[in-house]
Structure formats: structure tokens, C-alpha cells
Design goal:
The protein is an alpha+beta fold. The protein is 36% helix and 24% strand. The protein folds into three domains: 180 residues, FAD/NAD(P)-binding domain, CATH 3.50.50.60; 181 residues, 2-Layer Sandwich (D-Amino Acid Oxidase, Chain A, domain 2), CATH 3.30.9.10; 128 residues. The chain has 19 helices and 18 strands. The protein is globular, with a radius of gyration of 23 Å. It comes from Halomonas chromatireducens.
Length: 546
């Protein structure tokens, strides 16, 4: 907790260039971009980083192929370029993956028409990925035996990308980047609203953990509160050109349905794309798309029936999936940006996830509406330009604030790992070598873990049964990842709570040691706090299906 405490103390000690409210993907990317380019930045998040929409995505980084149908080619072009840029910038984390799409008899388009569309999609994306291919029903069955092709008339395969770990981990690494660049970031600190005084924003904050209040001053305020952007703007008296409408989506995590590392895509009964997505030892299926009036949502029996009915109709499993197969759920809202003077009545199935940045130059206030993981680097760069236009000095405008460490650093890590025989320490049930996994998750910080393992080989032992997390990773999380509650680690810094049954987590002897490492003398309290709430219900609370 020392990292969090020291950052809270820094909030009141100076006038920041920018205060960012909200630690989802938009706020995290903005903080990393501004801090990396030399601005003095503070970020506060009332829950944990990536604690809402940004932790409930499909873990896909895609160019928006669904927007081809509405002929929004400019948006598709932008998203494809963003996807390509992420793949190049984060090759260990954002990786190309094949999508196999099956078209059933009676669908509104013939599969060859959609196949032609996938070629146009490929061309719009500069031919960056593997080429699409047309598939007959027999070819679909040969490639994926679990797909039911009885009603299929064909299909096609194309490429997009996915996050190898999880979305919340990806978001946190931007927060960690902002901290590395000298920024201040704190979770579980709520903004109570601010006002403009003598050319500065004076914002009242509340520490959610102990209730104390504090005040922070900044030249610019950025509202990146995700689904709650409108609510926070009401606290600061901001009138904007945009507002949010909400679409609820859910995913179900079930035992692994296929060993192939590809996404199976179908068109669900409501006409929307429906995915079967690999997630390590599990499979993620969904999503729904339900218009809701507020961002606080939960999974209903109807939601679960919709997902299970759709998956059971389209796969030939040994037995149909039932609620007993559900390991965990993901549920939240997609905040969709619409013009304040209209657009809210438009079919939300046709609304895109593109972001909109609303600027009040007179009061040095900026609101970020909409957005998605794919477009995060653009958000960061656009925010820097907007802040500079508001008069904030950007000392290092040409600095590249994102991406994995240089290849030379990776080579040095891999060399040291090979010399000490790190991969030989990989657990038999692990999905990949230790060197690959540690580098992807921690980059340059993985070198510190090598030193810990050299000094004490026990640091390479899996600590929590049924997971791949090592003792040294828990020590790293305690020092550098601002784990404040147990859920922060189990659900967001890792995806343990998504892929391991709650009963197995609770009964793991290693979890007690993990709590001791993370929380010290608060270990028992944090353990009891986590299990005081049903995990089945907790996972339901604050997916982007895209």
C-alpha cells in the first residue's frame, strides 16, 4: 500500500498541468501520453483502474469489420490503422488471430458477398494481416469440428487481433507507464467535482478507503469517467456537445470448447456478431446488446439464456452448455457517444464505438466520450494536442510514449533467462514458457524478477494453485501495481477470477500467502472482504462486446 499512500500525498503538494478523472482506457492512455511527453499529470479513479467497461471487453483489438455494412469506411480505415499500430507496438501482447465466420441459410447476405467484403476490409487495412479465404461448409467442419454446419451455406476466415492477457492488465500498463514517467495516479479516490478559481481547477477528492477528503489544483481538467462522464460533467457545470447512451453486453466464461487458437464468429438470433473466443484454459462466449438507461447493470437469467441458446444452436458439443458450466461472467455497458441535440433515438446496434473529445477551451476542460481499446493510442495523442492548445507546455512533443521496450532490452532479458535455465522452471501445466510470459506482462521489470529468482529459486514457484502466477509476481504486484483490494489482483492485474472457480480460489493454500505478500497485516481483512460478496454477483457488476 506504500505506492498508493505516497501518490495520495503527492496530490496536494503542487499545481498539476492536468487532472484526469477516470482510470479506464481513455484516462490511462491520456495519462501515459501526457506524462511521457513531459506534462505534470495526476489521475484519480474512484474504483480500481480499468474497473468498469475497460475490464469487460471481448479482449479483441479489431478494425471494426461490422461497420463495413453501414459503409462507414473512414472509421474502418482509422480503426484498422490503429489495430495495425498496436500489433507493431505491442507484439508480445496484441497479436493477430483468425476469425472463422459461419453463415447460415436465410441470412441477409450470401457468404460470397461477405467474403468479398472481407477482402475489402483487408485492403482498407493495408493488407497488414493474412489474407481472407472463402470456406465451404465441409471446409468449416474440417477446420472446426465443433461448428454445426447443418444449416450453413458457407463462411469465410479473416484476421484481426486480440489481447494475449486481459484487457484490464493492458489498461493498467498505461497507468504504470504514466507512473514511470513521473505522473501521479491513485485508485479508490473519488472526485466530488471541481470549480474554476483564478485560472485553476480546484477539485475536491475523497479517499474511498478511509473517507478523508483532499483538494487538488490543476490548470486543465480531463473528464475520462467512462459511462459516468455525463454525471461528472454535472458536478463541474459543463455543457457538452455530446452525451452517452448505453448498451449492455455480457460474456460467459466456460471450460475450453476448442483447442484451436481462433475466434469463431456467428450472427446471433438478433443479427449481431456473436463470438467464441479463446481465453487460455477457458472460452469466452457472447455478447448481448441491450439498450439500458444507466451504466449500473447486472446479468439476468434472460441474458444467460440468450448466450447459451445461441452457442448451443451453433456448435455440436458432446452435451449442450448449461448454467452449471459457467465459471464467471462479464457484464457492463458500452458508452456510445451521440450528439446532445439528437442521435439518442437511433438504433444503438448501428452506433459505433468511436470516441469524441469535447473541448471547453474557455474553462480548460475536456471530456472524452465513447472509445474502445483499439483506438487508445489515438486518444492519447489527441488529448496531448488539445491540452497543448489550452496553453499547457509540452516539453517533449516528439517522445514516443507507448510500445514495448526496445528489442535490445528484450534480447538481454531472454539471454539472461536462457543462461539461468528459466524456461526449465515452467510448470508442466503452463500454457507458455516462463520467459515469454514474464516479458509480455512486465517488460523491463521482468529483469528484476530474474534477479529475485537467482537469489531464491522459490520465487519461480506457482503460488496460487490452478494459475500461472509466481511468488515473485506477487511481490512485484505489491511493490508496483497498487493492489488495494484482493479483487484488484485476482480480477484485473490478473484474470484468475475469470478462469478459476471461486471455490478453487478460496481453497487454495497459496492464496493466504498471496494475501500476506500483498497486504501484510491487513491480509485476513482483505481475504474476508473479497469472499463476503458472491463472486458470481460481483463479476456481473460494472462488456464491451468490441
Amino acid at each position: 500500500m506504500q505506492l498508493r499512500s505516497s501518490n495520495i500525498n503527492k496530490l496536494t503538494g503542487e499545481v498539476f498541468d492536468v487532472l484526469i478523472v477516470g482510470g479506464g482506457i481513455n484516462g490511462a492512455a491520456a495519462a501515459a501520453a501526457l506524462a511521457g511527453k513531459g506534462a505534470r499529470v495526476a489521475l484519480v479513479e474512484r474504483g480500481d483502474f480499468a474497473g468498469s467497461t475497460s475490464m469487460h471487453s471481448s479482449n479483441l483489438v479489431w478494425g471494426g469489420i461490422k461497420y463495413m455494412e453501414s459503409r462507414d469506411f473512414a472509421l474502418v480505415r482509422k480503426l484498422c490503422k490503429s489495430r495495425n499500430h498496436l500489433i507493431k507496438s505491442y507484439p508480445s501482447t496484441v497479436q493477430e488471430i483468425r476469425f472463422l465466420t459461419t453463415i447460415s441459410r436465410g441470412f441477409r447476405y450470401h457468404p460470397r458477398y461477405l467474403w468479398a467484403g472481407s477482402w475489402l476490409y483487408w485492403l482498407i487495412g493495408n493488407g497488414f494481416t493474412r489474407i481472407p479465404r472463402f470456406l465451404t461448409p465441409s471446409a468449416i467442419k474440417q477446420g472446426e469440428s465443433i461448428v454445426d454446419v447443418e444449416e450453413a451455406i458457407g463462411g469465410f476466415e479473416y484476421s484481426d487481433a486480440y489481447l494475449h492477457d486481459n484487457d484490464a492488465r493492458f489498461v493498467f500498463n498505461f497507468v504504470r507507464g504514466a507512473l514511470n514517467y513521473g505522473g501521479v495516479a491513485v485508485n479508490y479516490v473519488e472526485s466530488l467535482g471541481g470549480k474554476r478559481e483564478d485560472g485553476l481547477w480546484v477539485t475536491q477528492l475523497r479517499d474511498v478507503m478511509d473517507g478523508r477528503t483532499l483538494e487538488v489544483r490543476s490548470r486543465v481538467m480531463i473528464n475520462a469517467a467512462g459511462p459516468w462522464v455525463d454525471k461528472h460533467n454535472a458536478l463541474t457545470g459543463q455543457q457538452t456537445d455530446y452525451h452517452h447512451v448505453y448498451s449492455k453486453g455480457i460474456h460467459l466464461i466456460v471450460p475450453r470448447l476448442t483447442d484451436s487458437q481462433r475466434v469463431l464468429a456467428f450472427f446471433a438470433d438478433d443479427g449481431r456478431l456473436f463470438f467464441v473466443i479463446p481465453m487460455g484454459p477457458r472460452t469466452c462466449i457472447g455478447t448481448t446488446d441491450t439498450r439500458v438507461e444507466k451504466p449500473e447493470v447486472g446479468v439476468t437469467g434472460e441474458d444467460i439464456r440468450f448466450v447459451l441458446d445461441n452457442i448451443n444452436k451453433r456448435l455440436t458439443l458432446d452435451r449442450p452448455l448449461t448454467t452449471d458450466d459457467i465459471i464467471s461472467t462479464r457484464c457492463g455497458v458500452r458508452p456510445l457517444a451521440v450528439r446532445a441535440n439528437g442521435g439518442g433515438d437511433r438504433d444503438f446496434l448501428q452506433l459505433s464505438r468511436k470516441h469524441a473529445i469535447d473541448i471547453n477551451s474557455e474553462e480548460a476542460h475536456l471530456s472524452i466520450f465513447g472509445g474502445k481499446l483499439t483506438d487508445c493510442l489515438n486518444v492519447g495523442d489527441e488529448v496531448v494536442e488539445a491540452v497543448r492548445d489550452m496553453g499547457v507546455t509540452i516539453p517533449h512533443p516528439g517522445y514516443r510514449w507507448y510500445g514495448e521496450p526496445p528489442a535490445e532490452v528484450r534480447q538481454e532479458f531472454m539471454h539472461q533467462a536462457a543462461l539461468m535455465g528459466l524456461d526449465a522452471m515452467t510448470a508442466p501445466e503452463a500454457s507458455e514458457p516462463l520467459s515469454t510470459r514474464l516479458w509480455r506482462r512486465y517488460g523491463t521489470h521482468a529483469l528484476e524478477m530474474l534477479e529475485e529468482i537467482r537469489e531464491d529459486p522459490r520465487q519461480a514457484e506457482v503460488l496460487i494453485e490452478g494459475t500461472e502466477y509466481l511468488r515473485c509476481e506477487l511481490r512485484h504486484a505489491q511493490r508496483r501495481e497498487m493492489v488495494t483490494r484482493l479483487e484488484d489482483f485476482l480480477r484485473r492485474r490478473s484474470k484468475i477470477a475469470l478462469v478459476v472457480h471461486e471455490s478453487a480460489i478460496r481453497d487454495s493454500p497459496g492464496l493466504r500467502e498471496a494475501c500476506a505478500i500483498l497486504f501484510g497485516d491487513q491480509a485476513e481483512a482483505r481475504f474476508e472482504e473479497y469472499f463476503a460478496v458472491s463472486r458470481g454477483e460481483e463479476a456481473v457488476l460494472p462488456t464491451t462486446g468490441e
